[in-house]
Amino acid sequence: MSQLKSIVRGVGSYLPAEVLTNGDMAKIVETSDDWIVGRTGIKQRHRAAAGEFTSHLATHAASAALDDAGLLPADIDLIVLATATPDLTFPATAVQVQANLGISHGYAFDLQAVCSGFVYALTVADAQLKAGLARRALVIGAETFSRILDWTDRSTCVLFGDGAGAVVIEAVPVVEAGTRGIITSHLRADGRHKAKLYVDGGVSTTQTAGHLRMEGRDVYKHAVAMITDVIEASFAAADVGAADLDWFVPHQANLRIIDASAKKLGIAHDKVVVTVDRHGNTSAASIPLALDVAVKDGRIKRGDLVLLEAMGGGFTWGAVLLRW
Fold first, then answer.
1. Tens digit of pLDDT for each residue in 293-312?
2. If exposure means fewest CB atoms within 10 Å of the residue's CB, which of 63, 143, 189, 301 is most exposed?
3. In the predicted model, is pLDDT for residue 217 greater than 90?
């Protein structure tokens, strides 16, 4: 069998209709637009409507990615859905998305790595395709974080939003892919840091969904160092450097973390894709949301070298380097 490589065929995203501006947040908790923008870069976030679930957001994003790829649901034989906010304890939300799309073949499952979820999911799907277990995969990041926020905690509720993004990847022979496709992936985790970013509920512990809790200063402190680790590993594996990148698409959590990471790595400011101002931290959805914006506005083009990175609760973190 020919050696295979995963290439990106399409990208899509979806944001719920309701927009909460910083002014709206100031009516909910004691905060201000200046405070939020100055510390995070966030100007607004989206919130899912009553009865609108993670599976709905994911299905919209998946459909958009399929359209962008020029493919039909029947062309997909794997769905990997990264989410920390599933519809139900089980079955996997990915299975509901599969049903929503009218797919009854192949396989589908969820992956939970919080904000690193999309990077983890893309890496896992890439491995499945290269192993010959599937030919085309939908890789989705989708979240309804509004459902696990403590709306009285101004240090967290202003940061997060709901949304979904997706890519279609396809396994093709290396000789056909050429330089395109996923080049290298690097994943990490360190459970000793759980208390710095977690949800205080769960099926086995409290039998409740719980609320998000975060020690913001500690998260910031660790984020830049951990992100640098996996990016430098990616550069070394591919024998490239910051100057070779066309685009850096980081997890959209906080503008200060994005800027500090790019500066430390020597990545030029004009190569960084930033969308956190538009939708806040959407956890596993943030990277594909940013990708979709940059592809649709013409920044990311065929043949561009693109670096994705994220860090999330756990801590988990990772990076994927690919040629678009």
1. 999 999 999 999 999 999 99
2. 301
3. no
Q: For position 1, what pLDDT does the model report? A: 57
**What's the CATH number for 4-177?**
3.40.47.10
Mean pLDDT rounded to a whole number for the chain: 97
Catalytic residue among 60, 211, 251, 279: 251
Active site residue 254: no
> What's the CATH fold of domain 181-323?
Peroxisomal Thiolase; Chain A, domain 1 (3.40.47)
Using alpha carbons, select from 49, 45, 61 the residue that is nearest to residue 93: 61
Q: What are phi and psi of 208, to 5 degrees?
A: -135, 165
- Per DSSP bridges, beta strands 212-214 and 162-173 are unpaired
Q: How many CA atoms lie within 13 A of 113 on its CB side?
A: 26
Residue type, 81: L
Largest CA distance in the chain: 61
Q: Between these two residues, 221 and 324, which has the higher pLDDT value? A: 324
- pLDDT score, position 106: 98
- 90's CB contacts (< 8 A; 6+ apart) are none
Per-residue pLDDT band for 220 (boundaries 50, 70, 90) equals confident
**53-72 in b/e burial notation, b at 16+ Cβ within 10 A?**
bbbbbbbbbbbbbbebbebe
Encoded tokens for 27: 């009516």
Q: Exactly one of 46, 115, 186, 254 is catalytic; name it.
A: 115
Domain ranges in the chain with CATH number 3.40.47.10: 4-177, 181-323
Structure token pair of residue 90? 């089980």
Q: What is the DSSP letter of 274?
A: -
Q: Is 115 a catalytic residue?
A: yes
> Distances in Å between the alpha carbon of 303 and those of 60, 75, 117?
27, 24, 25
Look at residues 250, 295, 277 and name the one whose alpha carbon lies nearest to residue 19. 277
pTM: 0.98
Torsion of CA 255, 63, 70, 128, to 10 degrees: 80
Name 102's Cβ contacts closer than 8 Å, sequence gap at least 6: 73, 74
